[in-house]
Amino acid sequence: MSDRRLAGALALAFACTAQAGPADQLAHGEQVYARCLACHALAYDRVGPHHCGLLGRRAGSVPGFAYSQAMKDSRITWDEKTLDRFLAAPTQAVPGTSMTYAGIPDAKDRSDLIAYLRHSGESPECTRTGSAQR
Amino acid sequence: MSFFQMPHPAAARRIFLGRSAGLVLSGTAVALLAGKEGLAAQQSGAGDGASQDVQILNTALGAELEAIAAYQLGAESKLLQKPVLDLAVTFQGHHKEHADLLAKTVEKLGGKPVLAKSNYNFPVDQLKSQADVLRFASKLEQGAVSAYLGAVPLFGNRDLSKAAASILGDEAMHWAVLRNALGEAPVPSAFVS
Predict the structure, then answer these.
(1) How many Cα neighbours within 13 Å face the side chain of B116?
(2) The whole model's pTM is what?
(3) Which of A34, A62, A71, B127 is a plausible cystine mate for A49, CB 3.0–4.6 Å?
(4) Best CATH choice for the domain B9-181 from the list 1.20.1260.10, 1.10.760.10, 3.40.50.12780, 1.10.10.60
């Protein structure tokens, strides 16, 4: 293999390695998201509100969704930090929330889930419906 | 041999019903729990604990009512063939039993059970085949298992934790059967999360 081809192969290998991290994180985040699917969907409201456009949204603000008073009063804006705290123990973070779920104890599970939620906001499922902007 | 792979639907159904005996027992056990006269008394005066138990039960009830509607959608879609259609109706029946139990328990605890929505948002445009419907139902059941697992440790009353665990077991079986029907490993791992 010539030096030029070797350099090209190494560059490609490096690029693939560099991309494997986030891809793995998103794949794992999607697996963790399966735990949410009894009550949530990305693009439409169910027992829980939709998740498109979650990051940056004020808690309790999806129009027409019947939130608990506790969530409406929480004064939370969802970002990596507030989501991490909430997902670790929802009923402790927002006592009185309807999301009566013990939480996701593993920090990496939460981190990957949040990365997946952020990434999904740009997915066709979210942008097609326009719900990411809500 | 999976009952989905059996050539005769009647034989498949016999096998399924034979394997479902445990479900019936679980349902009976949970119904007995709901009938405990002491349950309301244990909870009355328990303050925030009782209130949170009602909230947990109502969240679960909302999800069960949605599952009933989802199976109704699947059953009416004309996409399901026997014996899968029979299974969907059977599973819907379990969810109706769960919902009935949860609603009665909420009332026993002095709460007001949530009602079914007049309409639900389902991804109807994505359901084009039997496999699509099965995959949709499988995801709902998987989520339900996780939701009950996340609820079990939160109850103030341990009898309610036991009841929720019984429902969890039933929904885990639904999930496994649906995965099997899709040609996936019915039980993908040693633990659920």
Answers:
(1) 14
(2) 0.80
(3) A62
(4) 1.20.1260.10
State whether A46 and B66 contact (CB < 8 Å). yes
From A37, A39, A44, residue closest to B121, measured CB to CB: A44
* DSSP codes of every residue in A13-62: HHHHHHHHHHHHHHHHHHHHHGGGTTT--SSS-SSS---TT-TTPBTT-S
- Yes or no, beta carbons of B150 and A103 under 8 Å apart: yes
> For B16-43, what is each residue's pLDDT tens digit?
333 333 333 344 445 445 555 445 445 4
Q: Which of B59, B139, B149 sits opposite A37 (nearest CB)?
A: B139
CB spacing of B143 vs A41 below 8 angstroms = no
Q: What is the pLDDT of residues B83-99, one digit of tens each?
A: 999 999 999 999 999 99
